[in-house]
Amino acid sequence: MTPTTGQKLKKVKQASQRLCRSTHDKHIADMLSDNHENKNTFWNYIKSRRKDNCGVSP
């Protein structure tokens, strides 16, 4: 991999992470602003964040 290719890859990675994070933050903000209308969506999100994503037991 040439230095320019590595730099391009790094910039693309940073841009995609930034977009993903901002989209996630917007989704959470929308969900919190609507929590009075649909509390179930909010609590489902909280419940999903508390679970392990690991499929293999120790």
The SSE string, one letter per element, is HH
Any idea what the shape is?
Answer: elongated
Share of β-strand residues = under 5%
Determine the structural class based on helices, strands and strand pairing: mainly alpha
Mean pLDDT: 83
How would you describe the oligomerization state of the chains in this entry? single chain
Structure, explained:
Residues 1-20 are annotated as: Disordered. The chain is mostly helical. 74% of the residues lie in helices and 0% in strands. It contains two helices and no strands. It has helices at 3-33, 39-50. It starts with a helix and ends in an 8-residue tail after the last helix. The mean pLDDT is 83.
Summed up:
This protein has 58 residues and is mostly helical. The chain has helices spanning 3-33, 39-50. It is built from two helices and no strands.
Secondary structure: elements and pairs:
Elements: H1 3-33, H2 39-50
Region (Disordered): 1-20
Defining traits:
mainly alpha, 74% helix, 58 residues, single chain
